[in-house]
Amino acid sequence: VICDIYDPVTGEPYSRDPRFVARKAEEYLKETGIATTSYWGPEAEFFVFDHVAYDSGQAHSFYQIDSEEGIWNSGLRAEGTRNLAYKTRPKEGYFPVPPHDTLQDIRSEMVRHMIDIGMRVEIHHHEVATAGQCEIDMRYNTLTRMADQVFMYKYIVKNVARKHNKVATFMPKPLFGDNGSGMHTHQSLWNGSKPLFYDEKGYALLSQMAKWYIGGLLKHAHALMAICAPTTNSYKRLVPGYEAPVNLVYSKRNRSACCRIPMLSENPATKRIEFRSPDPTCNPYIAFAAMLMAGLDGIQNKIDPGQPLEVDTFHMDEKESRKMATMPGSLEQAINALEKDHAFLLKGGVFTQDLIDIWISWKRGKEMDAVRLRPHPHEFYMYFDV
C-alpha cells in the first residue's frame, strides 16, 4: 500500500510521514523559482543468497551466508552432490554472462513484474561482488513517484527471490572483503521541458547551476549521510578500496568520488549528477528530499564545489589521499554532523525540527548503542586468548 498519512484528530498531514516530506520538497522547489521539477534515478543494488542465518543474544552472536555463486564454494564437494564450478571471484562479478551469472532469469522475472505494474526499467545485470550481487535500473521519474517505486522495487525483488527459494537483501555490506551495495542516485533539475544542468561549454557539459548544486551536496555531505546512509552497516561499505564513494570531490571519471558526472551522452536531456554515497537502507522519501534541499542550498548560496578531481584516486599515494576530505567513517559521526548542520533541511518547512530530533534520538538510542555495547564475534578471534 502506497499512501499518505494523516492525523486522525486534526485531519492534517502527519508531520513525520516521509512521503509528506517528499511532497513538501517538490512544492518547495517550485516556490524557490529555481526549477519546476526534479528527476531522480536511483541504482539500488542487492544480493541474492541461497542461505542466511543469524542470531544475537546475551551470550551468543553469529551470522552465516551462503550462495551457489560464492567463491568460497569453489572447492565444495558434499557427499552425493556435484560442484559445477564457475564461481565468481571477488570483484569480478560485473556483467558476466551465464553460467557465471546464475540469476539472469530471476532478474528478468523481477523486471517483468515491475513492467506489469507500470514501472519503466532500463537495464539489469550482475554487479561486482561475488555471491549474487545484482542491480536493476529504473528510468528516472519525479521525486515522490520515484520514492514510491523504490519501495515497490524492493518488494518485488524480495518476493521473486523468495519464490525461487532464495533470499534478497539490500543490506549495504553483508560480505567481508568484497564490494557492498550502494544506491547511486542520479538527479537533475528541469524548468518545464528545459534541462537546467546542461551547458555545452561547461566542465563535463555541466551548467553553473549544476556545479552550485554539487557544492551544496559536498558542503552538507556529512549531515546527508545520517539520512542517506543511515545504518551502522552503511559504514562498512563506505571505506576506501572497494570502489566506495568516500571522497568529497566531483569528477567525470573517479568511482571513489561522491559526485560523478555520467558522460554516456551529449544530449542535454541526459545531463545529470550522480551522488554515489547513499545506500538502499535509506528511506527514499526523506533521502531524496534531503539531497534536493542540500543542492538547492548550494544554488541559493552559490556554493563553489572547487575544482574537479581528474587524478585516479586508486593510484594516489597515502600522503595525497590524507589531504582529501572524505565521508564520515561511522553512523555516529554522521549523526553528530546532522545535529550541527540541518538548517538547510528546515527551509520551507520541508523537514521539521521534531522529525530531525526523533531521527537523531532513534539512531543513537536504538541502533548505534545496540551495536556499540555488544561484543563482536571477531573480537573473540582477536582477543579471547590474551
What does this structure look like?
- 35% of the residues lie in helices and 17% in strands.
- It is globular, with a radius of gyration of 21 Å.
- β2 (51-56) and β3 (61-66) form a beta hairpin.
- The protein is built from twelve helices and twelve strands.
- The termini are far apart.
- With 386 residues, the protein is α+β, with helices and mostly antiparallel strands.
- 43% of the residues are buried.
Shape: globular
Q: What fraction of residues sit in β-strands?
A: 15-25%
Mean pLDDT: 94
The percentage helix is 25-40%
Sheet with most strands: 10 strands, mixed
Low-confidence stretches: none
Oligomer: single chain
End-to-end C-alpha gap: 53 Å
- Total beta strand runs: 12
Supply Rg.
Answer: 21 Å
Count of alpha and pi helical runs: 12
Question: What pattern of helices and strands is seen along the backbone?
Answer: HEEEHEEEHEEEHHHEEEHHHHHH
Briefly note the structural class of the backbone.
alpha+beta
Précis, in short:
This protein is an alpha+beta fold. The chain contains twelve helices and twelve strands. Strands 1, 4, 5, 6, 7, 8, 9, 10, 11 and 12 form a ten-stranded mixed sheet that branches. Strands 2-3 form a two-stranded antiparallel ribbon.
